[in-house]
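Entry 14. Ran structure prediction on the chain below.
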Amino acid sequence: MTVNGKHTGPGTERLIEEIRGIIPADRFLADEPMSKHTSFRIGGNAAALVICNDEEELSAVLGKCTAAEDAEYMMIGNGSNFLVSDDGYQGIMIRLGGSFDTVSVEGESVDGSVTVRAGAAKLLSAVSAFLAGNGLAGMEFASGIPGSVGGAVFMNAGAYGGEMKDIVTSVRLMKPDGSQITELSAEEMDFGYRHSMVEDSGMIVLSALLRLHRDDPAEIASRIRELQDKRNSKQPVNFPSAGSTFKRPAQGYAAALIDEAGLKGYRRGGAMVSEKHAGFVINTGGATAEDVLEVMRHVRDVVYANSGITLEPEVRLIGCEL
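Output, structure tokens:
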């Protein structure tokens, strides 16, 4: 099999054939452009992208992947924090769908808090809309984050003073080899700034239990609109990007450091530091992964020369590096 002009290894080819026997053809996408599955709209082809609709399928696929020799695979959520190499990915991308794309009210406590179970594949915007419609408050901060619940838990996503750790009470996880499912408390998840234990352990997020509180649906909707207006006025939402390109450093803020270095509007090819918000590298049209990387390298080097602070990428780099 040839992907991006390169031959995949025999291990990957065997794995692909084994997974074809597990996943229906309409959810098995061979030689799939990753530009179709990332918010950057950038990336070469993956050897295959498969969509698992339930825990049994996911367990079977992970079992095959971990048993395979000389084969690569990885999980992908909504692709809102990924930059995939122009050479693509010579392995298998695994996405969740079906029963993982659900949200439901689980129960209400005597203290008035309400628990909601959200599947890993459910978009944060969809969860926020469900909660607002049911008069449940506490997740308004995430309404405009363009990611899935699984990805948000993975990196403890946050915005406007809120983080996932503020509302997550427990997380249902599968071991990397698909052999076991467990539920960990928020404390066991070891949430930190843009981090959770999932990043270190390789565990797969299946769903999260959230704690919310009741409020007037109109008031919740008003707060969501206010945050969306703020986001739209300050961020380049009309251009493809992967959100904040660099993590917040120990001193200061990445966007301010980039702005102070005079880098707003700096571009290479189709990639540019947003003139609206210096913390975003955007795809102005036809950008390649290498264009984005060149901009990121230049920003990192100039900011370091200007401030002595080294910026670290918040965007996940797949098959490429700074």
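The chain has a mean pLDDT of 94. Will compare against last week's run tomorrow.
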